Amino acid sequence: MELNEHLFRHEAGRMVATLTRIFGVHNLGLAEDVVQDAFCRALEIWKFRGVPENPSAWLMTTAKNRALDVLRRERSARTFAPELTRQLESEWTLAPTVEEEFGLAAVRDDELRMMFSCCSLRLSEDAQVALILHILCGFSVDEIASAFVSSHASIEKRITRSKKVLAGSKKLFDISGAEDFARRLPAVQRALYLLFNEGYHGASPEKAVRIELCHEAMRLTSMLLKNPLGATPSTYALAALMSLNAARLPARLDVSGNLTALADQDRSQFDQALAEEGLRLLERAATGPELTDYHVEAAIAWVHTSAQRTEDTDWTTIISLYDKLMAIRPSPIVALNRAIAIAQREGPRRGLEEIHAIQDSDRLANYPFYHAALGELEIDSGHLEDAREHLVVALKLARNPMERSFFEHRIGACR
Amino acid sequence: MNEFVFLYRGGQAGRSPEQAQQVMQKWMAWFKELAEKGHVKDRGQPLERTGRLVAGKRKTVTDGPFAEAKDVVGGYTLIVAKDLEEAAELSKGCPILEFDGQVEVRPVMKLNM
User: Fold this and answer.
1) CA angle centred on A236, ends A232 and A242, rounded to 5°
2) Which of A103, A255, B30, B62 has the fewest CB atoms within 10 Å, measured from its CB?
3) Count of structural domains within chain A
4) What ipTM was estimated for this complex?
């Protein structure tokens, strides 16, 4: 019996979600201990007896039995989930209640409930993303720190503080109320979007790590789509955006995880199945009157993905989509991308004009790709000396080794 | 061919789920390799790290653990090898060694000597 990739991580997320539902959110730490314990046992026993037929069920049963032990042992000393207190107090209803909470549908709801709880408005977006990765995706502090190219201490601080906020919230988010659900949904979508971007644009020099972050965001988004309240056009658009960008990820990074410029990407490496899945999702997103930035970004990704060669890219459509995006969610970065698209259609001079016309471009002063874009357009205009100056600034602002080596490589092109 | 017992001690560091899965996969790969070469007589059993110690004429009973965590035997395997040299060599592939654990290699005594 082979283990599915990341099975332990994913099961850890499900188990913590369900145990927290039963123990109550104030006992999050206890839930984590029980899960840790279940994994220790699995490891010890499977080593000698082999992996069981259904490892997920084995782990869940172990967690369930440990939960029953804890509930019996500590029910006089602790309070558990307030909405389950009565059923957990009586020996008659204890086991059936726990059994029910470990049912498939209940566990799926638990994961969603935890996802919404992690996106508490009392937490910053960074904290939400880290908490989701830690609790629902089973990443350790060290694994998050290495994925975000951050220090152990700073991630640990962020996680500990966020857990305290979560545990102090008394109750998990109630996903059964349509109104509350709809109100919290944008924050959840945003966190998943940021998680995906951490993989797609992120700092980790390891290709595998970044693809993993993208996959986690996609897995959680499809979980959201399985819930009738979560399956809104904007969630479909978000899922489409992820699939269409993920389809291009293998070409975007080279073997050693280095960034590859758009024109140099080997399109034969695009993941066709993912691209088709993305288009299918995009079609499902196109219902109802709502047009979100996820819709527009997904459409842009689709135009890129569907071009056979870089020079076949339909820049006119891309520019009009960026115009739409500027109307929905204007930002200097969107304006910069729009200017780059205009340069592709109308030449580097026009691109430079557009970049110089960006309002509040001072907000881009510390963004390395702003200077890199100026540099690239100067290269295309034949002004190698100017190009070099811009790229040197980009290099100084590079946030990680991967960006650094990309800019160094481009500076090399200025000769 | 001779029989040996591998006793596994320690190597129980706290790990993330991902690391735990990697350790698990290493153990499976190691056992598979040993089995394919005909060295595994009995894959053995894991042992709980607690229990009771019954000692002396007075049969006093004490609750375990009986040693420090790193010295507690966590399981055993019955191995077939040419000699002690080969058995010790085989034990070097054990993943427990990567996690501060030990393998004790002990020949099983033969009846006909």
Assistant:
1) 145
2) A255
3) 1
4) 0.89
